[in-house]
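Schema walk-through. Below, the input block comes first and the output block second. Nothing else is stored per chain. Lengths vary across the set, and this one has 140 residues.
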Amino acid sequence: MTETRSRPSPLRWLAAAAQFCLGVAILLLLQKAGDAAVARFALPLPGALVGMLLLLAALVAMGRVPRPIALAAGGLLRHIMLFLMPVVAGVLDHLDMLQGHWLPFMVSCLLGTALTLVVTAALLQRLLHGRAAASGASAG
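--- output ---
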Protein backbone atom coordinates (compact mmCIF):
# COMPACT_ATOMS: atom_id res chain seq x y z
CA MET A 1 0.00 0.00 0.00
CA THR A 2 1.21 3.45 -0.78
CA GLU A 3 0.53 6.40 1.41
CA THR A 4 -1.35 9.25 -0.13
CA ARG A 5 -0.40 12.67 1.01
CA SER A 6 -3.20 15.10 1.32
CA ARG A 7 -2.55 18.24 -0.65
CA PRO A 8 -3.16 21.52 1.12
CA SER A 9 -6.15 23.41 -0.12
CA PRO A 10 -5.37 26.22 -2.57
CA LEU A 11 -6.62 28.75 -0.04
CA ARG A 12 -4.24 27.49 2.66
CA TRP A 13 -1.37 27.44 0.21
CA LEU A 14 -2.16 31.00 -0.84
CA ALA A 15 -2.32 32.15 2.81
CA ALA A 16 1.04 30.52 3.57
CA ALA A 17 2.58 32.07 0.44
CA ALA A 18 1.25 35.49 1.46
CA GLN A 19 2.72 35.10 4.95
CA PHE A 20 6.05 34.02 3.46
CA CYS A 21 6.08 37.10 1.20
CA LEU A 22 5.18 39.32 4.17
CA GLY A 23 8.07 37.83 6.14
CA VAL A 24 10.52 38.42 3.30
CA ALA A 25 9.24 42.00 2.98
CA ILE A 26 9.76 42.58 6.71
CA LEU A 27 13.31 41.19 6.54
CA LEU A 28 14.12 43.39 3.53
CA LEU A 29 12.64 46.47 5.21
CA LEU A 30 14.78 45.84 8.28
CA GLN A 31 17.85 45.48 6.07
CA LYS A 32 17.04 48.77 4.35
CA ALA A 33 16.44 50.39 7.75
CA GLY A 34 19.90 49.18 8.77
CA ASP A 35 21.39 50.64 5.57
CA ALA A 36 19.65 53.95 6.30
CA ALA A 37 20.88 54.00 9.90
CA VAL A 38 24.46 53.34 8.77
CA ALA A 39 24.27 56.14 6.20
CA ARG A 40 22.57 58.59 8.59
CA PHE A 41 24.82 58.05 11.58
CA ALA A 42 28.03 57.12 9.70
CA LEU A 43 28.30 53.82 11.57
CA PRO A 44 31.35 51.66 10.80
CA LEU A 45 29.14 48.57 10.38
CA PRO A 46 27.45 46.90 7.42
CA GLY A 47 23.83 47.92 7.00
CA ALA A 48 22.73 44.28 6.92
CA LEU A 49 24.26 43.72 10.37
CA VAL A 50 22.46 46.76 11.79
CA GLY A 51 19.25 45.44 10.20
CA MET A 52 19.77 42.08 11.91
CA LEU A 53 20.32 43.87 15.22
CA LEU A 54 17.04 45.75 14.64
CA LEU A 55 15.35 42.40 13.96
CA LEU A 56 16.84 40.95 17.15
CA ALA A 57 15.63 43.93 19.19
CA ALA A 58 12.12 43.60 17.73
CA LEU A 59 11.99 39.85 18.41
CA VAL A 60 13.22 40.29 21.98
CA ALA A 61 10.63 43.04 22.54
CA MET A 62 7.84 40.80 21.17
CA GLY A 63 9.08 37.74 23.04
CA ARG A 64 8.30 35.47 20.09
CA VAL A 65 8.95 35.01 16.39
CA PRO A 66 5.93 35.97 14.28
CA ARG A 67 4.81 33.29 11.81
CA PRO A 68 5.60 35.33 8.65
CA ILE A 69 9.20 35.90 9.77
CA ALA A 70 9.56 32.25 10.83
CA LEU A 71 8.31 31.09 7.43
CA ALA A 72 10.63 33.42 5.53
CA ALA A 73 13.67 32.69 7.68
CA GLY A 74 13.05 28.94 7.50
CA GLY A 75 12.78 29.06 3.73
CA LEU A 76 15.97 31.08 3.42
CA LEU A 77 17.89 28.87 5.85
CA ARG A 78 16.94 25.72 3.95
CA HIS A 79 18.82 27.14 0.96
CA ILE A 80 21.68 28.87 2.77
CA MET A 81 24.33 27.16 0.64
CA LEU A 82 23.05 29.10 -2.37
CA PHE A 83 23.89 32.30 -0.51
CA LEU A 84 27.35 31.04 0.52
CA MET A 85 28.43 29.80 -2.90
CA PRO A 86 29.45 33.26 -4.19
CA VAL A 87 31.64 33.76 -1.12
CA VAL A 88 33.41 30.44 -1.70
CA ALA A 89 33.83 31.26 -5.39
CA GLY A 90 35.23 34.67 -4.45
CA VAL A 91 37.82 33.10 -2.16
CA LEU A 92 38.81 30.63 -4.85
CA ASP A 93 39.08 33.48 -7.35
CA HIS A 94 41.72 35.18 -5.15
CA LEU A 95 43.91 32.18 -4.30
CA ASP A 96 47.06 34.08 -5.31
CA MET A 97 46.36 36.72 -2.65
CA LEU A 98 45.44 34.01 -0.15
CA GLN A 99 48.77 32.27 -0.69
CA GLY A 100 50.58 35.39 0.50
CA HIS A 101 48.36 35.83 3.56
CA TRP A 102 47.42 32.29 4.48
CA LEU A 103 48.49 32.48 8.14
CA PRO A 104 46.26 35.42 9.18
CA PHE A 105 43.43 33.88 7.15
CA MET A 106 43.74 30.52 8.90
CA VAL A 107 44.13 32.08 12.34
CA SER A 108 41.03 34.22 11.87
CA CYS A 109 39.05 31.22 10.56
CA LEU A 110 40.08 29.03 13.50
CA LEU A 111 39.51 31.74 16.12
CA GLY A 112 36.16 32.65 14.58
CA THR A 113 35.07 29.02 14.59
CA ALA A 114 36.23 28.49 18.18
CA LEU A 115 34.47 31.66 19.36
CA THR A 116 31.27 30.61 17.59
CA LEU A 117 31.37 27.18 19.22
CA VAL A 118 31.99 28.61 22.70
CA VAL A 119 29.21 31.21 22.43
CA THR A 120 26.77 28.66 20.98
CA ALA A 121 27.55 26.12 23.71
CA ALA A 122 27.20 28.73 26.45
CA LEU A 123 23.91 29.98 25.04
CA LEU A 124 22.53 26.46 24.66
CA GLN A 125 23.53 25.58 28.21
CA ARG A 126 21.87 28.75 29.52
CA LEU A 127 18.69 28.12 27.54
CA LEU A 128 18.48 24.47 28.64
CA HIS A 129 19.11 25.45 32.26
CA GLY A 130 16.35 28.06 32.02
CA ARG A 131 13.96 25.53 30.47
CA ALA A 132 14.74 22.96 33.19
CA ALA A 133 14.18 25.58 35.88
CA ALA A 134 10.89 26.65 34.30
CA SER A 135 9.59 23.09 33.99
CA GLY A 136 10.69 22.33 37.55
CA ALA A 137 8.87 25.39 38.85
CA SER A 138 5.66 24.55 36.97
CA ALA A 139 5.76 20.93 38.18
CA GLY A 140 6.22 21.89 41.80
